[in-house]
């Protein structure tokens, strides 16, 4: 049995993962200390990381500081159960899909230089837990277009942004999805989980 690639993205209620107005403060939680999520959402978010052992990342997100940020958070909040995921990020195997970096300067992190489909398929065939992918809209869109995503986890923020970018770009066939579950939280966030219908 192959393991799943899970795409996790924050999304606005009108379906955008990246608003046209880049300065718009639309997420209940970015990477900062202002964390507008309720305790149950934080607990459920941490539970996702219990089921993964590999993180697939874009070059841009690692260069923007994703691994450095959560490495510092793991050290700052070692006993806080809400930050257990930060320790999981540190401990997990990280794979950065790029041919633009010569080597990795991040712990437990390797550079994958092959084609996207070949590298992801090879990861899925390995033994282990599921793989989560985190990156910007361009990286996520490429994974979706290549048909590599096995599960979508959309964190629907209670904000409409009016315009922006989506991870879905097939205007002819669209993308049929089957809902696995939907959970509403006190903070206003709704988490929807889907699998693609082929």
Automatic annotation (TrEMBL):
Signal sequence extent: none
InterPro entries: DHFR-like_dom_sf, RibDG_C, Riboflavin_Biosynth_HTPR
Domain Bacterial bifunctional deaminase-reductase C-terminal: 3-191
Pfam family, one: RibD_C
Biological processes per GO annotation: riboflavin biosynthetic process
Single Gene Ontology MF annotation: 5-amino-6-(5-phosphoribosylamino)uracil reductase activity
PANTHER family: 2,5-DIAMINO-6-RIBOSYLAMINO-4(3H)-PYRIMIDINONE 5'-PHOSPHATE REDUCTASE (PTHR38011:SF11), DIHYDROFOLATE REDUCTASE FAMILY PROTEIN (AFU_ORTHOLOGUE AFUA_8G06820) (PTHR38011)
Official protein name in the record: Dihydrofolate reductase
Species per Swiss-Prot/TrEMBL record: Variovorax guangxiensis
Lineage, highest ranks first: Bacteria, Pseudomonadati, Pseudomonadota, Betaproteobacteria, Burkholderiales
